[in-house]
Amino acid sequence: MSRSPFQTFVWRSEIFECQSTDIQRFYSLLAIETERLGLGSKILGQAGHHPLYLLQSPGQKAGLPNLLISAGFHGEESAGPWGLLHFLSQLDGELFKRVNLSVLPLVNPTGFAKGHRFNELGENPNRGFFIENGKAKPGADTSAEGRILLEHAHLLQVASRDGILTCHEDVLMTDTYVYTFEPSQAPGRFSHSLRDALGQYFPIAADGDVDNCPVRSGVIFNHFDTSFESFLVRSGARVGCCSETPGQQPLDQRILANAAAMNTFVNMLAPELS
Ligand SMILES: [Zn+2]
């Protein structure tokens, strides 16, 4: 089965008391969390008439791990951005003594507002991230949002040096799985911890193929393409994960699962203070 780029998906969230496509509510709640946590807020560019934000924990320090969480590349995969908002709402500033956290909360706002996969120009925001002779480069299929991210490649490469988590969903599935990247021949603790965080909420996908990639024990391992996460791992991020929550399950469960994956990611890679 293939995912239709303009089929629309809208769900109701009881957690946030709104529809999954309510972008006004999303940005207003995000502004509250940004303010409460004292996050630095930078507009990387305009996607349609919406800002493409990068948020960063205050007082970033040398010596702490640099972790990046991104969400909302595909507009119908709405539990990523809402899950990120839920994750932020549970944080206090203590975490920022352990980690330099950066967040791309909503990469494809025009798709999110409509509840469809691609952006309003019909482009796929998670394709077209190329590296040529060590330099970040767009290609013929790079989206408007992708070009904005590539213009800030160095900033994002630094921000993801110790890990990238990008939160996607699979609207065709009732089960969960992860794409992971580790510098090893087989999935290790990083891959398994993230899979298991999602496995608290949904069944883990049976072995087989998803989009022509082999899934084994819920993990698609070290699969390189022109996605954002592949790009950052090629650029030097130590580990990477693209989480896939199942769009056939209730939205609020998916929101909680995304927040749990973010918690696991951060806590695994940012050591506790002694
Ligand atoms: Zn996706």
Describe this structure in words.
This protein is of the alpha/beta class and 274 residues long. It has eight helices and 14 strands. The chain is 31% helix and 24% strand. The strands form four sheets. Strands 3-4-6-5-9-14-10-13 form an eight-stranded mixed sheet, sandwiched between helices. Strands 1-2 form a two-stranded antiparallel ribbon. The chain is globular, with a radius of gyration of 17 Å. The protein has helices at 23-37, 79-89, 109-114, 144-151, 153-159, 189-199, 228-234, 251-269, and strands spanning 12-13, 18-19, 40-47, 50-56, 66-71, 100-104, 130-132, 135-137, 163-170, 177-181, 208-210, 213-215, 219-221, 240-246. It has a single domain (12-269), classed as Aminopeptidase (3-Layer(aba) Sandwich), CATH 3.40.630. Bound molecules: zinc ion. Zinc ion binds at residues 73-74, 77, 168.
